[in-house]
Amino acid sequence: MLCVTLYCAWELTLGAFEIMEQLPLTLPQLITAGDVRLAGDRIRSELELLGRELIKVEDEIAVVNTTIQGLPLILGADSVRPELMEPHRPRTRRNIRGLSQACRFVLRNTIQPCSVSAVCTLVTALNPELLIHHRNPLASITSALRTLARRGQAVRSVENGKSVWQWVSSSRLQFQETRQLENECVLNEAS
């Protein structure tokens, strides 16, 4: 597909040079703006035509791929050779596990609360391949941090208008439980 595109671009460039060669050039007169516009218009129309042809070819390729994938379903698995099927199989998604564990490790080993971008930077430093296949690494990190917060392992707070995340240590958990008990006792005494 790339070869076809490069070939089309090459042909388009050669066509532009042919147009320039066809223009009458004399020594005192150079190429005028109108001649350049004419060449530009022809190049633009060629490009639009090639774009439409490319869409048609891609549609035909999609139909052939779908047909090849459907043959074993219709005729049976043994009707098509495996080497013919291999390039036309849908790609399986490769999940790289460990994002939540990496976020957990980062939060456990930092003293101060971290922003999502700081956690992302530290996770990337920890394992550079972990976030390569994520379309939006910050969103993935945020999702992992929210999961940790739902499990009670991390706490989100706000500093200077930004969300920061911190690991909930066992002493902090005990402090929160003690504080909740004190609040309940105060409420019971007040009633």
What does this structure look like?
The chain is mostly helical and 191 residues long. The protein folds into 2 domains: 2-88, no CATH class; 99-190, Orthogonal Bundle (Arc Repressor Mutant, subunit A). The protein is built from 7 helices and 2 strands; from the N terminus they run ααααααββα. The protein has a two-stranded antiparallel sheet with strand order 1-2. Strand 1 (154-159) and strand 2 form a beta hairpin. The longest helix has 43 residues, at 33-75. The chain is flat. The mean pLDDT is 76.
Short description:
The chain has 191 residues and is mainly alpha-helical.
Helix and strand topology:
Layout: H1 2-22, H2 33-75, H3 82-85, H4 99-108, H5 116-126, H6 137-150, E1 154-159, E2 162-167, H7 170-190
Antiparallel strand pairs: 1-2
Helix pairs in contact: 1-2, 4-5, 4-6, 5-6
Strand coverage percent: 5-15%
What's the CATH topology name of the largest domain?
A: Arc Repressor Mutant, subunit A
* CATH architecture classification name of the largest domain: Orthogonal Bundle
What is the CATH C-level name of the largest domain? Mainly Alpha
Oligomer: single chain
Identify the strand order in the major beta sheet.
1-2
Under CATH, the homologous superfamily of the largest domain reads Winged helix-like DNA-binding domain superfamily/Winged helix DNA-binding domain
Fraction of helical residues: 55-70%
The whole-angstrom Rg is 32 Å
Alpha-beta content class: mainly alpha
Taken together, the total number of domains comes to: 2
Largest sheet: 2 strands, antiparallel
Helix count from the secondary structure assignment = 7
Say how many strands there are: 2
**Mean pLDDT score:** 76
Sequence of secondary-structure elements? HHHHHHEEH
